[in-house]
Structures are given as C-alpha cells and as structure tokens.
Design goal:
By secondary structure, the protein is mostly beta strands. It contains one helix and 36 strands.
Length: 498
C-alpha cells in the first residue's frame, strides 16, 4: 500500500465509528409531555437535517420555518443538543457545535438593535431554566431564525439536526401570575457577526488574561462593545455565560455614579482531566434566588478571563445572556449583591460526547525532533488535508528554511474566493504527535504563531489563502497543527543562515 493510501486509510478510521446515513426528515416536532406538578409542557423540536460537508466550518442561517409552539404562551426553559440520524449525539472531536443562536425576527434586540437574540448554545450546552413565576412571552405569529456554525473536524461529511426542548406554558386557561422577561445579550465583542478575540500564552497577570481590560486598544476609536446602558429600571432574574476552551469565567459588573459593583461570575467547571483546555465543561448560571435590581442609566459591563499560563487561545469568545423584567420591583441592589460562588449552579455534569480526550501514543505520527533535515524549501501546500512537504503522517524528514527567511503556506483546499475547506497553521509544543481528542493538540508552543483560518469567504476566514512563517524565528524545529482539523500535523525546521 502506498504512503498516500496509508494516510487516507488512517484518517478514515477517525470517523468510521460515527458514519451515518442521510436523514430525509425536515423539521420534527414531538408531541408535548407535561412537566410534573406544573402546567408546563416539554416540547421537543428539531431543525434539519443539516448537511455538513467534510471539514466544514462556516456560519449559516436557517431556511424555511423554524419549528416553534403553535399557540401563545410563555417559554420558561430551553435545552439544546445536536443529533445524528441514528439519534445519537456526535463526539465533540468529530462534529462540533460551535454555536447556535435562536433569533426572534419579530422582536428588537435589547443591546444591539435588529432582530432579538433570545437563546444561544455552544458545545458547553448550557440549558435555560427561568425562576418560577417568570417567562418569556411568546406569540405564535412570531418568526424565528437560527444562526448556527457546525464544525466538522474530519474529512467525512455528515447530516445532523439541531434539537431544542422548550419548557412551555400555554396562555389559554392559565390563571397564575407570570412576570414577563426579555433577553439582554452581553458580549465583549457585541455587534460582530463573528465576535472573537485572541488570547496569547503568557499575556495578562499570573497566567490569566482578562478581555477587554488587559487587551491593547481592543475597540479602537469605537465605543466599548462590552457595555450597555440600561434604558429603564427593573430586575434581572437569570444569567449564564459562554466561553471557549481555556476560558475560566465571565464577569458581570454594574457601574453607577462612578462606582462599580461585581454582581455575577459565570465560572467554568471543567471535567477535563488535563485542565481548562477542552469542551468537557459546564458554565455556571445564576441560582433561582439571584435577583439584581437596576436603575435607568446603570451601565452593564462584561469581561471574560482565560487561562494564559500554558496555551494560546485563538478566536475566543466571552458572552453572557441575561433575562430582565422591565419596571419590576424586587431584587438586590448592585452595591450589596456579592458575586459569590454560592450564587452559581450548573445545568449538567460531564457529557459522554466528551469522552475522547486524546493525548495517547500514535504510531503513525512521527516525532519531528528526531527526524533528519530535508531540503530548504520556500513553499508548503495544504491539499487533501495534508501539509506537503512536512506532514507528520509517515514523515521521514523535516523541511528546512534558513534563519531570516519564510516558508509560504498555501491552502489548496479552498478557492481564491468563496466556499471551501479552511485550514490553519498553529504552533504546538514538540513533538505534537499524540492522538487527537478534545484536549489534544493545543496551541501550547513556547514560541507561538497562528495563520488564522486560510480562506476567503468572510467570517471566520482570514480573507486570504496564504500565510508566511515569521522571519524572526530562531533555529529549531517547529511543530504545528490545524485548529480546524486537529488530526492534521506538520513541522518545519529553521537552520542557521549560511
């Protein structure tokens, strides 16, 4: 068998366990069941099937009708997931729910204008459960949209469905009082289609980096995107954060009259044995007893903190969605509401889709530090999920470049403009040759570099197909991987100039 055949056979084994048949169903609604002891129903909805191309990592929007309740009422809970056609949840290291945002086109967003963002889920899959007596007023004529990004980490296409269980109270015949609440979306890059930032290893203080506080001019001449001035007073009754791997917590502050109060910390609880480096995590939400009273003119401010002690984190996020009862009395003044840990609880524990952590010996990936030097090169092509030359799959030598010069990488898996398969060149610590999983590899090189996602299709791509290695790299062997498809590994060697 040729080397190319061995490479393809090995890579296909990464997905054989989750190969699936094409699903022909459209939107699915499963009959409601009553929630014990209440008038609430649990309604199961699905959007799909969504065909995900091999290696896909694009932002998409729903087409056609997004399933929702047929009668007026109140939504009091939402639980998200994604499913394969066999009704199993895919492994996170194979298919990744980067995000799904439920948008109500019939309402106006509180903090950004435009359509209202009322719920979001990432791979941490936090569920919403509003405190008893509060509900999101729903009108059957409302029009919903889904903004989603499903990331295929391997070279195999799939069909998936986004699912969401709504805890719903029909309005007809319900006589108990419910206080209407509305979503307030906070984001450290609020307003951006792809609201991300980078966290570099060693930045910040004591191995922790807080954005935007420790970033250099994060918003330029624009107004701070992480702040929102309350147009009216009332009570916040629920809050929950969103982070990417490496994230430690989201902090919410209320600024009033020159004073700042820290009112909630959504802390990430990692089940990952390697620490805060994977999606094996649950994000803290407020307890039902948490109530925050605010006044007209109060400024909400959000920051997010990542671990920067051993790793860099590219395209990180910091988001918090809150639920607010306008002109509602009750709750605690910011000056006396402590951001104590006992205000936090978690909506789930370890999830089985996060079981493959990676980081074990891989006989097919070479240790580049032990390989001889190959010829000096100026170009490396990325084609068919390989770095050529320099791929660690069955490599026999490491391509070289003289100190002070660059190697140009070109992504041949994407067209010059338009849809394609994006790849990155991201530095990782030697040897970077262990098995792929949710916790391996990571951007943990002492000397870091990252190309961004090479492609020209708008967010999340870099807007170009080529990237040059830094010219100031000292002599040594440098390993790298693809953040979009982590099974891809490569290396090059900088040699002294002659």
């Amino acid at each position: 068998m040729s080397n190319d055949s061995l490479v393809m056979a090995r890579r296909l084994t990464l997905v054989l366990a989750v190969l699936i048949a094409v699903c022909s169903a459209a939107v699915v609604v499963i009959a409601p069941k009553a929630q014990a002891g209440t008038a609430a129903q649990v309604l199961h909805y699905e959007y799909g099937p969504i065909h995900i191309d091999a290696g896909q990592n694009t932002i998409q929007f729903s087409s056609g009708q997004v399933a929702k309740p047929a009668v007026d009422g109140w939504i009091v809970g939402i639980k998200p997931n994604i499913l394969l056609p066999d009704n199993t949840t895919p492994r996170v290291d194979v298919i990744h729910l980067h995000h799904a945002v439920w948008v109500n086109l019939s309402r106006t967003d509180s903090t950004r204008g435009g359509p209202q963002r009322f719920f979001a889920a990432g791979e941490e899959k936090t569920a919403l459960a509003l405190p008893k007596g509060y509900g999101y007023p729903y009108v059957a004529s409302d029009s919903w949209l889904l903004n989603f990004m499903i990331h295929d980490l391997v070279n195999q296409s799939f069909d998936v469905r986004i699912t969401y269980d709504l805890t719903f109270i029909p309005k007809a015949g319900y006589t108990k009082p419910i206080t209407d609440v509305t979503p307030v979306w906070m984001d450290v890059q609020n307003g951006d289609l792809y609201p991300v930032f980078n966290v570099y290893r060693g930045r910040g203080t004591n191995g922790q980096f807080t954005y935007p506080d420790q970033a250099a001019n994060p918003y330029g001449s624009s107004a701070p995107k992480n702040q929102f001035t309350m147009p009216t007073g009332g009570t916040f009754v629920w809050a929950g954060g969103h982070l990417h791997p490496g994230g430690l917590w989201d902090d919410l502050y209320v600024d009033r009259g020159g004073q700042s109060a820290h009112v909630f910390r959504s802390t990430a609880k990692y089940f990952e044995k390697a620490g805060p480096v994977s999606w094996d995590v649950s994000l803290g939400v407020t307890k039902p007893t948490w109530k925050l009273q605010v006044q007209t003119g109060d400024v909400l401010r959000l920051t997010t903190t990542y671990d920067s002690s051993q790793h860099s984190w590219y395209e990180a996020m910091g988001i918090m969605v809150l639920w607010f009862a306008p002109n509602h009395s009750g709750g605690t003044d910011p000056s006396t509401l402590a951001a104590a840990k006992n205000q936090v609880h978690y909506t789930h524990g370890h999830l089985a889709e996060n079981d493959n952590h990676g980081g074990l010996a891989d006989p097919d990936l070479r240790d580049p530090s032990t390989l001889p030097s190959g010829p000096n090169i100026t170009n490396i092509a990325i084609s068919n999920y390989e770095y050529s030359p320099g791929d660690l799959d069955l490599a026999t030598q490491v391509p070289t470049v003289q100190q002070g010069h660059s190697i140009r990488f070109t992504n041949a898996d994407a067209p010059s403009s338009g849809y394609g398969t994006w790849h990155s060149i991201t530095a990782c610590a030697l040897p970077c040759n262990l098995t792929t999983g949710i916790a391996y590899p990571t951007a943990n090189a002492l000397i870091g570099f990252d190309s961004g996602q090479l492609g020209n299709y708008g967010a999340p791509t870099a807007g170009h197909l080529t990237w040059d290695t830094p010219t100031d790299l000292p002599p040594g062997t440098y390993a790298f991987w693809c953040r979009v498809h982590p099974f891809m590994r490569g290396a090059f060697r900088v040699v002294p100039a002659t």
